[in-house]
């Protein structure tokens, strides 16, 4: 599951091609994953800019450095966390479509 989340994040970043160095783009590049090209990371940031608020982007960026946190977040209880996860999944799906 964690690997799928990371792939979703990277796919989102890949196809955007918009230069910006947002928080997700930086997290993607700094994660050291072999498929995290500048184009992919930029694409993911572009999708994030269209689908996630600033606080959501910062929270999602933590998943690159700590993939287990994504799993913990997905499984956590609470309305706010569940709402965030729904937004994050929508972002990941959009990124996969746009950047894949």
SSE inventory with pairings:
Blueprint: H1 2-14, H2 23-30, H3 38-51, H4 54-65, H5 67-75, H6 79-99
Helix pairs in contact: 1-3, 1-5, 1-6, 2-3, 2-4, 3-6, 4-5
In short:
Helices cover 77% and strands 0% of the residues. With 100 residues, it is mostly helical.
Fold and architecture overview:
The protein has 100 residues and is mostly helical. It has one domain. The chain has 6 helices and no strands. The chain has helices at 2-14, 23-30, 38-51, 54-65, 67-75, 79-99. Helix 2 (23-30) packs parallel to helix 4 (54-65). The protein is globular, with a radius of gyration of 12 Å. 38% of the residues are buried.
Contiguous uncertain segments of 5+ residues? 11-19
Largest sheet geometry: none
- Structural class call reads mainly alpha
Percent range of helical residues: over 70%
Mean pLDDT: 85
Broad shape: globular
Task: State which percent range the strand residues make up.
Answer: under 5%
The overall strand count is 0
SSE succession: HHHHHH
Number of domains: 1
Please state the CA-atom Rg, rounded to the nearest Å. Answer: 12 Å
Distance between the termini: 18 Å
The number of helical segments is 6
Name a few traits of the molecule.
100 residues, mainly alpha
